[in-house]
What does this fold into?
Amino acid sequence: MSGGNYYKQALFKSPNHRTARLWLSNIYTVQGKFEKAEREILRAQEIDPLSYGVWMTLAELYWYWHKPDKVIEQADLMLAANPVDGGAYGLLARAYAQKGDFEKAFAALEKIPTDNLMRFVILAAAGRMGEAQKFVEAIVNSDEAKNSPFKIACMYAAIGDNEKAFDWLERSYAMRQADLVSIKIDPSLDSLRDDSRYIDLLRRVNLEE
It folds into this structure.
């Protein structure tokens, strides 16, 4: 991604530019270069240790990296600053689901009861596929689905319906949907990684390496 060079040049001129480091970390993250991304975010945190955006970016990196305990650490920092932060509770719900601690995942979800997508994520991770399937079927014909086929692809992949997942990924690709930038790292797509169609799609979005 050529954008990486742009931010590197910016940091050469201004090494303490927090935003440039965060954007560079985002590029490393979608490429699966998690250690490089972490280094840039931690440097940004040194520059601005109380930044909510830095906490959130670091937590999301750790979720993509399958390091749920690290996600929980960042979410706890966010809640210490703001005990009613819905974003932090969403991170906790995802992290505990990734750990397999579904009791704590659903407890965190109670703090954000209107987040139906997060409920789906936990249901799928917990193996409650019937309930998760009903959720997908309820929105698959909606405007939300038409506007965000990548999200629907992730849902189908999470419940093990790989054929429909690839169908919706192709719709996302046809739309040139920006969310496709996460195809290499989104944990919901883990079940697709060894499929030749997935590898071909990575190539088409320039994320194969």
In short: The chain has a mean pLDDT of 92. The first helix runs from residue 3 to 13.
